[in-house]
Task: structure prediction
Amino acid sequence: MKKVMLTGDRPTGKLHVGHYVGSLRRRVELQNTGDFDDIFIMIADAQALTDNADNPEKVRQNIVEVALDYLACGLDPEKSTLFIQSQVPELCELSFYYMNLVTVSRLQRNPTVKAEIQMRNFEASIPVGFFTYPISQAADITAFKATTVPVGEDQMPMLEQTKEIVHKFNSVYGETLVDPKILLPENEACMRLPGIDGKAKMSKSLNNCIYLSEEPEEIKKKVFSMFTDPMHIRIEDPGKLEGNTVFTYLDAFCRPEYFPEFLPEYANLDELKEHYKRGGLGDMKVKRFLNSVLQAELEPIRTRRKEFQKDIPAVYEILKKGSEKAEAVAAETLREVKAAMKINYFDDMALIKEQSEKFAE
Ligand code: ATP
Ligand code: MG
Result:
């Protein structure tokens, strides 16, 4: 079986470091292994419109921002197909047929959708499109016969929903769709990176982000405003690591080589953590280290982004070509789906013959 990766992001803002550790970094690594037959990276504008219906301009503006972030992180259009969801209308058609395989109560049980409804104050008036977006995600994944979907932890319920649709479809209509596997980050801190406020996950909608394209001064300001252990008041006080955002970020971003470079008095992160827990290590010192780490991680991304920013028409051309390729692949899957569902009347010679015989006498 072909190995196919699919994943994407909503164009509701620039991408942030949560996206990077949750999915983007992994995508680029996987892309560069050369192990995949096909890689599809989708800018999910149609999904973004499900909770931004009154603000299409926001979605429109952020398409190119997300594309620039992709290119800056090392997604390579020669190796990965970058495309825009709305430009592949087959995805809507697939969603429409999958809707028959899912119950309202099943959608209501989706914990991510539940949390997002609350976050957006949709309780009294949930747009139908928003409520059903897990079904449209199943269409996105299955249209490309994705085998691997690298995403953050919040996407687990979506993958479960997709798998259920695949199983249901295949059992009702015959083996047609491919069962995808979720690929979560290996590191706990990366599954759901908290925001700089230490609350919830970092999310464009919550205004608690460090963006990939952020300037050095801004990164520094955000790091120094970060939440630590509120009981760690004097340097000599013992500190707590649980819920300490600065250490969570170090878990997510620190590489062994950063110690000799920026903090040579410690051999590794474990030693730093031990000292913090014991007492005698101040928050400022840890924050200064985290700032150096983040600056080192983000500097090459920011520089590459500025290069791509010089030729915006070329970025749109990449997305246009990618969308054309994606549409061709999705159209083939849709043909197979319609054949399995027996709604391919005009290519079904056996049907035409059978009906002719029925009416012959
Ligand atoms: P929005 O607030 O518009 O939903 P978002 O910040 O949640 O935006 P998405 O576009 O919904 O971003 O998510 C894109 C991908 O990034 C998904 O795979 C998601 O799991 C991952 N992701 C988003 N935020 C985080 C985070 N804080 N930690 C780890 N992964 C994340
Ligand atoms: Mg989200």
In short: Residues 203 surround magnesium ion (ligand 2) (CB under 6 Å).
